[in-house]
Amino acid sequence: MAKLLKIESPESVVEKLTSLEKRVIAPVRDGKLHRFLPVKRKEEVDFGYFQAEGSMKGFFFPATEGILKFSTGTKMPQVEEHEIEFPETFVVGCRPCDAAALPIQDKVFEWDYVDEFYKARRDSTTIVSLACTCADNNCFCTSMGLAPDSPEGSDILMVKTEEGFLAEVLTKKGEKLASLLDLKEKGSSEDRRRSAVSASKLITRKFKSEGVPGWLESNFEDPLWEKMCTKCIGCAACTFVCPTCHCFDIVDEPVGTSGERRKNWDACTLWHFTAHASGYNPRDMQHKRYRQRIMHKFDYYPDKFGKFLCTGCGRCIRVCPVSLDLAEVLEEISSRI
Amino acid sequence: MSIYSPDLLKVSEVLPETSEIITLVMDFQDGSLAKRFSFKPGQFGLFGAFGEGECALAIASSPFTKGQIACSIKKIGKVTSSLTSTNVGDIIGFRGPYGNWFPLDEMKGKKVFFIAGGIGFSAIRSSLLSVLENRNDYKKVVLLYGARSIDELVYKRELAEYEKSSKIDLIKTVDPGGESKDWDGKVGFVPSVLEELAPKPENSVAIVCGPPIMIKITVAVLVQHGFKRKDIYTTLENRMKCGLGKCGRCNIGKVYVCKDGPVFTAAEIAEFPPDY
């Protein structure tokens, strides 16, 4: 059972941590949208936000990162390892759907072979999430087994209640931070229960997801794919804003005789993803590439790791230039189960 | 050292195979790794040229050769173009061995049919050398090998040896139009020649590798002749970047070719969705 403590406000957490000169990442207003950025003062932060444009994915698994340095000027190439040390970091005020994406990605980067770059960042970061108090019609976290106040992936979950704010302390890292913040006063579990009830009413878009993997498995050739997904233009915007998508490319970027080997975001919706050098491409049509994205998220990944590769954050729906609505595809599938 | 850091290999031999294919024989630069390194036939590695990138290729040498590995490369894309222009003494990056292997121990006491097309031979050469090394453990050993033309046959030196050897039955073929006047092999696509050969399925296993279409048709011919799908092994050469089950590129259905493969039985492949 998580420990409930009273907390003044999310801003007070930023204030305390920045005064101790800790590295803090929090939502910052940038014109019409909000982005997660490193902040130095609490005045830079705006917690009155709905959802940040990009997820926090890039802080653990950057869009591009060097994994090796080399120079080829001599007969014997010089190969140099990249630093795998990262400063202690606190993410303050991310949404539960972004926090829940982290354990989902952990499974990928830490099964069998451990990606040290990812793990070092995860190990040095504490996640202080903020339960949602608003949602739009693209949010569907409850259909993914989560909720606007899910504790998954958070070290501390902050919840706004009628009385003020509660801190739900969930892990050892969370306990360490609670003592650093000097949180002593117990919170009321009745207060927390009431906040959970109002959170459960936030999400209006709901569908049955239990049967989705089974349907996907037996309907690979269904006309639905061509009908609903042909309009995908393969821009990969959905993948890049997704907090759980994790496919990447490894490329050498030389400049003259030196350079770096880099790990870059990639996407199964891009045509080159599975193209062989011979010219053969097993996923030669756009709807097949979009189908792969759905299959991976709602059948293959769950088969391997036991959860959906999706937290229902809705970003892919908001960002799609052709209004290809992932939840609509799932709703259609759900209606056939 | 991260999981993406390569070990260094020094090229000791460059063997031309065809106008587009070479075999590189390479020594591990790190003495203790040279002693320690071992792999199983069927496993692959990521071979890289610094500044060009990496490429997933089968380890083509015998697992009994220590401190040294070989791979055969066809010049097709950017990385393979760079690797095929390598000279003796050059340094290559290597990560591996990755993936699973052919269960050669389980095949002991059986007839083994090796069926390869073009550069696909490189992915089963390690198994063939291993079986020949322990020849007495197996019943009959057959190699049916074909390519588009005579030039495109790899390992010609070994094919010449196999012609004379009593340890192995070699049937070589080239696609119609790929033959010359003095060609002493067969003319026809691998699956058609296999059809003629009419292999008996009793106490037999088959190891197949070639272009995707050749694998599909060859498996169909073997099944028609009574081979059980579980006794037909193949190795898939998907596009792969990490080899570690993370980058997502080689995912087909519920498997990652780099982790669950690259070796699969035809029974396993029959369960895949048709997008490989």
From TrEMBL, chain A:
GO terms for molecular function: iron-sulfur cluster binding; metal ion binding. Keywords: Iron, Iron-sulfur, Metal-binding. PROSITE patterns: 4FE4S_FER_1, 4FE4S_FER_2. Transmembrane segments: none annotated. InterPro entries: 4Fe4S_Fe-S-bd (IPR017896), 4Fe4S_Fe_S_CS (IPR017900), Helical_ferredxn (IPR009051). Residues 221-253, 298-329 form the 4Fe-4S ferredoxin-type domain. It holds the Pfam family Fer4_22. PANTHER family: ANAEROBIC SULFITE REDUCTASE SUBUNIT A (PTHR40447:SF1). This is Heterodisulfide reductase subunit A.
TrEMBL record, chain B:
GO terms for biological process: pyrimidine nucleotide biosynthetic process. It holds the Pfam family NAD_binding_1. [2Fe-2S] cluster binds at C242, C247, C250, C258. CDD domains: sulfite_reductase_like. Binds 1 [2Fe-2S] cluster per subunit. InterPro entries: Cyt_c3_hydrogenase_gsu, Dihydroorotate_DH_ele_sf, Dihydroorotate_DH_Fe-S-bd, FAD-bd_FR_type, FNR_nucleotide-bd, OxRdtase_FAD/NAD-bd, PyrK_electron_transfer, Riboflavin_synthase-like_b-brl. Its cofactor is [2Fe-2S] cluster. Residues 4-104 form the FAD-binding FR-type domain. One of its GO terms (molecular function) is flavin adenine dinucleotide binding. It comes from the Bacteria. This is Heterodisulfide reductase subunit F. Keywords: 2Fe-2S, Electron transport, FAD, Flavoprotein, Iron, Iron-sulfur, Metal-binding, Transport. It comes from candidate division TA06 bacterium.
